[in-house]
Amino acid sequence: xxxxxxxxxxxxxxxxxxxxxxxxxxxxxxxxxxxxxxxxxxxxxxxxxxxxxxxxxxxxxxxxxxxxxxxxxxxxxxxxxxxxxxxxxxxxxxxxxxxxxxxxxxxxxxxxxxxxxxxxxxxxxxxxxxxxxxxxxxxxxxxxxxxxxxxxxxxxxxxxxxxxxxxxxxxxxxxxxxxxxxxxxxxxxxxxxxxxxxxxxxxxxxxxxxxxxxxxxxxxxxxxxxxxxxxxxxxxxxxxxxxxxxxxxxxxxxxxxxxxxxxxxxxxxxxxxxxxxxxxxxxxxxxxxxxxxxxxxxxxxxxxxxxxxxxxxxxxxxxxxxxxxxxxxxxxxxxxxxxxxxxxxxxxxxxxxxxxxxxxxxxxxxxxxxxxxxxxxxxxxxxxxxxxxxxxxxxxxxxxxxxxxxxxxxxxxxxxxxx
Length: 419
What we know:
Blueprint: E1 9-12, H1 22-32, E2 38-41, H2 43-50, E3 58-61, H3 65-74, E4 78-83, E5 88-93, E6 96-102, E7 104-109, E8 114-118, H4 122-126, E9 137-138, E10 143-145, H5 150-156, H6 165-171, H7 174-186, H8 193-201, H9 211-222, H10 227-236, H11 239-244, H12 250-263, H13 269-277, H14 283-291, H15 295-305, H16 317-327, H17 329-343, H18 350-356, H19 358-361, H20 371-375, H21 383-398, H22 405-417
Parallel strand pairs: 3-6
Antiparallel strand pairs: 1-10, 2-3, 2-9, 4-5, 5-6, 7-8, 9-10
């Protein structure tokens, strides 16, 4: 491949212990032996510079995929062509997996996917990425390279498209949602003006994206630190409406975030999505279709959005316990917080705080009788067994989950003897 262009060395990573992982050092040694250069690219470098946790380590190389595969095979490292059309190989060393992608340039884009050609030019590869803070790279020694101004933007906590914002968005319209996600996650202050203007102008392009891609990105966005604030900006500019086709309530999400802070809760995507998009539970079918939600996720959202009187701080503790028994602790916890956010009560409201703790402090008991107990009383097998069981459960719940075995036995006998 052609000799790579010069990259601008800006600084060295400090205290990046993950760079010393034996598996990663082995990958570097194998791929860099005999010429060529491989670097960590994107999020790992960004987060390391911010002092935030590094979860995924992706690599870029000026070697072509065939050379990557040959060098890995010669060293006994498993190599899998997981995205070979885009130059991506997955290497497994010492049980750890790393995606290694050959430097690329876009040949053709249609707003959803790109046709690429390989290059050895680090700057050319950087220019096809989305945001300046995501185009930073670091070599095996921790030397950081930046050709697009990403380090300055990271220092300023500013999320900015590389080059012309509209051009970057036209390459992949999902970058609109990514722009707001990264702004919420990493930026301080308002969204970049050029990025916001471009996202607003090109928002209709998002309609050509698959529901799976939008749904996956929304789940990532919704748990970011400024999700409520940024969602309000997205709504103001008509972007949220295109994404969701549902009436959104960013103010409820913002109140929920204050509640989370007051309770020490970790962000929960289901609870936050319900607060933002399901003020009308009828929106669920639209949301499930648009985001291609799994049945499990749709059911969890439905439970979180199904706010009822038992979730209110003014409801009796027994009513809340019955709801926990029927819906489960997780569903109650989510729905209670959504109800709290919708109520407009302060995050410091002591009654709501006390009610919020119930699901953690109280475990619902199991129904103390079974169908076998009813059969043992001489009731023949059939639908009546289920009727008796349901009647007993209704009585037991009304009796505040009584554990009095004699009382339970007497009531079951009474129900079994009834015509």
